[in-house]
Specification:
By secondary structure, the chain is mostly beta strands. It contains 1 helix and 22 strands. The longest helix has 7 residues. The termini are far apart.
Length: about 350
């Protein structure tokens, strides 16, 4: 008998599995920042799906919030999040076309309350990303902003000073200021959400070294109050502006002396202490009533010069100036003159 066996293996096939949904990835850099009468919640706009592919159909975000009173706080209890606001991504980007982050200001706040926020994004199919959550925010009445903020240019940095606040926004006294946060912007720009300083400034003055020359800058300052584990900022104080265009020359050089030698007249003076010094110009007058003429073809980098172009029997008067390295160089007033009759 001829037996024909069927081709192929034999065995039980596995159960069918549904394709795994591709969801937007969890939002990154989620933070909650108490600022004045609001808590500003911000996060980066997601670019990827959970599988690493590009997120092409981002549609919006759901911002959820948990609320607990200070006196009813329970760290071990699960938090109950309720929808606070839904953000349409396209509408948001139409109002802020250059945005790389999403920001929402929560102003519906009650004193002595703990707020926690959660954010999910969703795509065109309304599929939700994994949720991200902020730290707990212990919100209470913010302090008043600092007063009398001033800004002045000092060489290549800006010196700022201010007066401390003494009360809270509700009129009660402020027991202690944890510090101050400084914000800077350029013309036509908005202030960043985070301050220039990494830690609260604990003095009533500071120096901003991060400025460029020939620019206009604007500053505001916020006082910081610590409530439980949260630093709460005040509203910003009245804005001040400063220009870093340098119109101030170095100080007048001092101590100019003239020393005759066999090879010419040596001029020496005290070195300038200006941090923005670029160099010196030396001027000479020959004969009474003549104009001072610059002797040096280029700026001198040191506080001395040998004038070898003098003639025996002549009388010379010298002056020296200092110049800075500003874009439009500033030259100091001339030093006190020194006169010498040269004889070899």
């Amino acid at each position: 008998m001829l037996c024909i066996l069927p081709l192929g293996g034999c065995g039980k096939k596995g159960d069918p599995t549904a394709p795994r949904a591709v969801l937007p990835a969890e939002v990154k850099s989620l933070s909650a920042h108490p600022q004045g009468k609001a808590i500003v919640v911000s996060w980066d706009i997601p670019k990827k799906n959970t599988d690493g592919s590009e997120l092409l159909d981002l549609t919006g975000f759901k911002l959820l919030r948990s609320v607990q009173a200070f006196d009813k706080a329970c760290k071990e209890c699960p938090k109950r999040f309720l929808l606070l606001y839904e953000i349409d991504y396209e509408t948001y980007m139409m109002s802020k076309p250059q945005a790389t982050t999403i920001e929402y200001s929560d102003r519906d706040l009650s004193v002595r309350t703990i707020y926690t926020y959660s954010v999910v994004s969703f795509n065109a199919a309304r599929q939700l990303s994994p949720s991200a959550r902020t730290q707990d925010i212990f919100w209470d009445v913010p302090g008043m902003p600092p007063a009398n903020l001033t800004a002045r240019l000092q060489e290549k940095s800006v010196i700022l000073s201010w007066v401390a606040p003494t009360g809270l926004e509700d009129g009660t006294s402020l027991q202690e200021v944890a510090g101050y946060n400084l914000y800077r912007r350029g013309p036509g720009e908005a202030y960043a959400l985070t301050p220039l300083n990494q830690e609260p400034i604990t003095t009533l003055a500071c120096r901003d070294k991060g400025v460029a020359v020939d620019q206009d800058y604007f500053y505001t300052l916020r006082s910081v109050r610590k409530v439980e584990e949260t630093f709460i900022e005040s509203e910003g104080c009245e804005e001040v502006s400063v220009s870093t265009t340098d119109f101030i020359p170095p100080g007048v050089p001092m101590g100019l002396v003239a020393i005759p030698t066999t090879t010419g007249i040596v001029l020496k003076w005290n070195e300038s202490e200006a941090s923005d010094l670029k160099g010196y110009n030396l001027y000479r007058q020959t004969g009474d009533g003549a104009d001072f003429v610059k002797v040096t073809p280029a700026l001198l980098s040191i506080a001395s010069y040998l004038d070898a172009s003098v003639e025996d029997g002549e009388t010379y008067t010298y002056r020296v100036t200092a110049l800075d390295d500003a874009r439009e160089t500033n030259e100091s007033n001339p030093s006190a003159a020194v006169t010498i009759h040269y004889n070899q």
